[in-house]
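fyi for ur records
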Amino acid sequence: MKRFYKQNTKLFLIDLPLNFVFTTEVTTPSMEPVLPVGSQVKVKKDIIQQTHEGDVIMFINDNYSHPVVHRIIKKIKMGSEILLATKGDNAQSMDSYFVEQKNFIGVVIQKLNDRGIYKDLNKPVIFLLPNWIRYIFNFFSTIQV
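which gave:
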């Protein structure tokens, strides 16, 4: 059973239902320092049309025995087909192949940080101050000397 699963993992991931979210582990240093080896990430099964330049995605490449996690550096529309040019953050140059819908698994949406909390990967971090800090700041900013 284990051998069957290993040989068919790629097919299994490609055939997941749309919007299905799963957790996996980064196994290579190609995305360091953003995603070091051993990082836990959540991947959302999606369609290639929903991606944006800068997104971190997971896809299948027949040259590798495992799915690849790289960043989109260029989205190319050729007729009705969309191709993605990708690159690992730790690589000097872009990948020598393009990702097509048939090889596309999904978008990495979160990574598990050192404190065990998932952080959104493709969205800017917004810092929100608790209300009590805002009140103190407003109080002291109204004092005139």
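The helical segments are 2-14, 131-142. thats all i got for now
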